[in-house]
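Hi! If you just cloned this repository, the fastest way to understand the data is to look at a raw example. We've pasted two of them here, unedited. The first protein comes first, obviously.
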Amino acid sequence: MLSPVSMPHEPSAGRALFLILICLVPLLAGRAAAAAAALPDDYRHAFEGGAANGAWGGGIAVGLIDGNDQAEWFFGKAADGVTPDRDSAFEIGAATDVLTGLLVAQAVLEGKLRLGWTLRQILPADFPWRDERLAATTVEDLVTQHSLLPPGPTNLFPLRAEDPYSDYRQSDLLAWLANVQMPTPAAGAGYSILNGGVLGLLLARVHADDYPNLMAARILVSLGMTHTGFDDSGRLLSGRAFGQPVAHWHFDAFAGAAGLRSSLGDLLGFVRANLRPEGSSLRAALLLARQARSTDPGGGIGFGWNVHEVTVDQQSWPLVWRASVTGGFSTFIGFRTDRQQGLVLLAASATELAPIGLAWLSGESAPGTPAPPYSAPAGQAARYPGLYRLLNGPELTVRSAAEALSAQLRGQPSWPLFPIADDVYATRGGAILITFLRNVDEINGLLLRTDGAYVMAHRLSVRAPVLLRTPTAIDAARLADLPGDFELDAGMQLRVSRSADGIYARYTGASLQPMRAYATDRFSADDGADELAFQRDEHGKVSGVTVVLGGAERHAQPIRWQVPRLPPYTAPVPVD
């Protein structure tokens, strides 16, 4: 399925694209490293321009280590008018993985974990695995993002779309691990928020402590990172996306994947420890974590780090980096030991920093000032509604309401769209991009980009198909046993809950959708796009539900979740 879930991620073009990008830049040519930690003019212009035009309108902090020198620069203001400084806190999203990776490295060195141990070995012997492939996932698979896990869990049902992970608990993660049936064939390796989330769970188990305490006591204190943590206290800035203030993201069960907030000063200290680990109590763990263990085209993956080997004067050196974008923040952290050069970029805006960070560490000119946030003219959304047919077969419906646009493939939930340029819309986080196509002034098609692939679609009608139902009152007793979870397939689930005058439907990764009764056990969305029809057995109990999504019928079976408990940990017997 095409997931509408927003998640903290590496640059939207994907990890592989940026690794390939590094391969293509001529690292032996370009600017030599400056003798002092100076800000080159072209990079200054890019940062000043991006802060002025709103691309990094929430403020940006820049820190450079060059040999023994260090310098910091700050541009723009956060959404609340605060100018960032070295102690301001930013969400660092998936860059949390490199600190979780350091915690894994330390556990490996202490003998508490082995990279070859599987989930089956670390979790209780009676853990009720539904899928043996998941049980066979190793610690190394997780820490190098090669686990074949999906991008997110199917039982993610956000109460608030603007903070999608805040109510996902450890019990939900355990239930997912026990009950999930992986798609066949499994998707290829790629970023998954589940990797860091499961690592946090495993680390807490083997240390008999909770993950935030472990991170604070074993990593943050050792590195002197006093402005880094998981809560909103301190000097956390306000973030922005699409030119507007946005809510902070909170991660609970996924704290190990993306939960940290940190400051420029703390992250520069972390980078310096990586450049010169000999003075740190975590020396061995720092060195282990940055070693590439899994290889992708153009580079390798360490414990959360992207690692690309570059050749200078016939000597191979690693360029090590990690980047992330959350709902309203962007992060880049990187270093090169051959130049003793490190770079930290933090923005209180969801505009990617990876291209500029990679160019700088590669000795290239700045890629230029990013485009400003787009402001759609009034009435623009009304140009695009209708039914479109993709060239690979499925139909896609585009709807508009009060200047808001959404798109829906047959058989899938709809996704909200946000304007980013003339005739160009994206889902929050940029996982899905739609470019509407014109024949002179008439919209006659669209181009859909998802998972790096593009598909054309022709416009079949200028109105979105709709079947409006007349709401009717239903006895509350008939609603009492409808709430529950249902499985449509290995990649999508449905959660039904009660509302004041009907029910709510929530699909994997999608927010609450009010549904109102139009007949007994039958419900429709306000826009008429989606419907639910519940079936009952001979005893009157709910036995399933027929789901209509964008005109396509699908059947969902009730899920009887097993929620395992975790007894005290017993270490696996080492097998050499």
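Ok, and the second one:
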Amino acid sequence: MILLQASLSVSLCMAAVISAASDPLPYLHPILAIAILISCGAAVLAGESIWHSRHGRALEREAQELGLSFAAEGRPFEGSNVRGLPLLQGDSSVEASNVMQTMIDGREALVFDLPSCEICETEPPHQPFTTVVAFRCPEGKMPEFEIGRKDLISKVGDALWQKAAVIEDLEFAKEFFVHCPEPKKVHDWLTPAKLAKLRSAAAPFHVSANADWILIFRPRAQILPAEIPAFLRESSRIAAALLQ
């Protein structure tokens, strides 16, 4: 609703600009147009700020109901190994918003929002934020890889890795790409049993993994508070399949 109101404000501003074109004082047109457009931009930014504030409060309430800890902002990866995780752009001090923390099946799990980054986008982002679930790898043995649906995003992986794991599960290989720096390690890790479980669980998601973390997210999607329980359940199935 807030963003709709902001859009209506922009429409009204643009109408004012057009109307200004008939003003008998043409030298005022550029000044008036600039002032109106600045006001439009401010209205949109204010609307987005209010929406994100309300979204954060709703997530905090949802976290309390689920028994999760919540912080409006945080640096959940500080001091850890984030190599090979493009969403974090190699920065362990990356700041996240709406950070929720819990334990699932004995593993630390985090849910948070990150600004949608260009590395993981193949088109302008539909959402300024992407909701991510991160699972800590307990033994630090996971190889680096990216798994996602075969579409334009796979071209990003091709440019980054220049390598792809050989997947013998033909049904999996039809739907998903697997990019990695060390194909032999990933081939050995992704056993037929794991691939069978991933094939049924991973369809809407992108998976990014290294020795310390498994990141699971839907490209260009910010999850609503009411969808967090289902998002956690689905993500935990993927993590369990990879760590079995």
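That's it. A detail worth noticing about the second one: The two ends are 44 Å apart (CA to CA).
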